[in-house]
Every structure is written in structure tokens, then in C-alpha cells.
Design brief:
Structural class: mainly alpha
Distance between the termini: 62 Å
Number of helices: 12
Strand order of the largest sheet: 1-2
Largest sheet: 2 strands, antiparallel
CATH superfamily of the largest domain: GntR ligand-binding domain-like
CATH class of the largest domain: Mainly Alpha
CATH topology of the largest domain: Four Helix Bundle (Hemerythrin (Met), subunit A)
């Protein structure tokens, strides 16, 4: 029987720990410690973390380490759960519109070539998702990467708080409706407009593209045609 590759061993175990919530709101241990814990080499750990980052399960910040998706929120788990009962999808999109267009503007000025390549991969993965859950994973990772590129830890924490509330809330039917009605393809066109503006280093265009995207999501999901475009400007 063929022996399992060290990278696959590390990837499977890290996925298990992430899904179990072992690293919720925490930075993952350094590669050296993970290698010792998992019984594999550091190269295998690095390759496993690369794969997890591409699928949106973790994110990295240079000089700070690797974090589980959803880490760095401003509120704890109990506060997030309580807030999720009070917030509706309309309020969540409104909050995102307050910060994400500005952060797309900053990303157009600060994103590296490696960042742009990662953003593009995540947009492509969201487009080809086979189900609503997979689509949401890559869609959130796409937006998180842009927020991360902006280089502001406080804004990143605000974004993570909004996403954590969204994921805690019982909005599964809303997300599935969006996916089943060609939401992934429509979002891809809008994501490409954001990416192209970042590639061209056009901050104003990136801001507008992100605002347009989130406003169209509001229209598709909630029937608030033009509302956010009007109030966000």
C-alpha cells in the first residue's frame, strides 16, 4: 500500500483541527512547532499551509504568522453569538459597505504581485464552486485577502467580526438562494472589476468596483435596488 505523503498527513490533521475549532481566534503555532506536533518536516507543513491559504481556511500576515479564518475579531465567541441574533442580512451588507470599498482603494495602492495572484486564484475558485458552502468559503477568502492587503489591523478585525456574525446567523437559505440563482457567475464579473482596478493601481476605480459589487449583492439577495449605492456615496 502506498504510504501517505507528509504534506497530505499535515494537511489532513490541520484541517481536522481547524474544523474542530482548535485554533478559533488564535494564531497557529510556528511552522517548527507544527512540524514537531504533526511528526513531519517543515516543508510538508509549509505546503499544507499554502494549500489551506489558497482555499481560504487560513490567512497569513508577514511578520505576524498564520491565523485561522475568522481570527482577529473584536468580540469573543459569546458576544458574536448574541450579536448574530440581533443582526439581519441587510445590516451586515451595510456594515461591509462602510469599510470594504475604502479597503479596496487601499489594496490598489499596497497589494503586491503575490497578493494579486492570490486574489485572482480565490476569485477563480469561487466561480467554479460546486455548492453554496464552497462558494462562500472562497468568496469570503477573496474579500478577506483584499482587506488584508490594505494593511490595517483594526479594519481587518472589523471585517472578521462582521463575517463571524454572518456565519453564526441562520442565513443559510439566503446564501443558497444566491448561489442557486447564478450568484457565483455574477459575482465573478464584479470580482474581476475589483481585481482589474487593483492590477492597474487605480484606487478610485477599485473603491467604486467594490461598492458596486456589494450593492448588487444587496439587490440580488434582499431586493434593495440602488439603496446602498445612493447612501454609500
Amino acid at each position: 500500500m502506498q504510504k501517505e505523503a507528509p504534506k497530505d498527513i499535515a494537511l489532513a490533521e490541520l484541517r481536522r483541527r481547524l474544523e474542530a475549532g482548535d485554533y478559533d481566534n488564535l494564531r497557529l503555532p510556528p511552522e517548527r512547532e507544527l512540524a514537531a506536533m504533526l511528526g513531519v518536516g517543515r516543508r510538508a507543513v509549509r505546503e499544507a499551509l499554502d494549500a489551506l491559504e489558497k482555499e481560504g481556511s487560513v490567512w497569513r500576515r508577514q511578520g505576524q504568522g498564520t491565523f485561522a479564518a475568522g481570527s482577529h475579531t473584536l468580540l469573543g465567541e459569546q458576544e458574536i453569538a448574541r450579536l448574530a441574533h440581533r443582526v439581519n442580512p441587510l445590516e451586515a451588507i451595510e456594515a461591509r459597505l462602510a469599510i470594504e470599498p475604502l479597503l479596496a482603494r487601499r489594496a490598489a495602492l499596497r497589494a503586491s504581485q503575490a497578493d494579486i495572484e492570490a486574489i485572482t486564484r480565490l476569485a477563480d475558485s469561487a466561480r467554479t464552486a460546486k455548492d453554496a458552502r464552497t462558494y462562500e468559503t472562497f468568496d469570503i477568502a477573496f474579500h478577506r485577502k483584499i482587506v488584508n492587503c490594505a494593511g490595517n489591523a483594526l479594519f481587518l478585525s472589523m471585517f472578521e467580526m462582521i463575517i463571524s456574525v454572518r456565519q453564526k446567523a441562520d442565513w443559510k437559505h439566503v446564501r443558497e438562494y444566491y448561489f442557486e440563482h447564478d450568484g457565483a457567475e455574477r459575482s465573478y464579473v464584479e470580482h474581476r472589476a475589483v481585481i482589474d482596478s487593483i492590477v492597474e493601481r487605480q484606487p478610485a476605480a477599485a473603491e467604486v468596483a467594490m461598492r458596486d459589487h456589494l450593492s448588487k449583492v444587496a439587490t440580488d439577495l434582499l431586493g434593495v435596488d440602488g439603496f446602498y449605492l445612493n447612501v454609500a456615496k
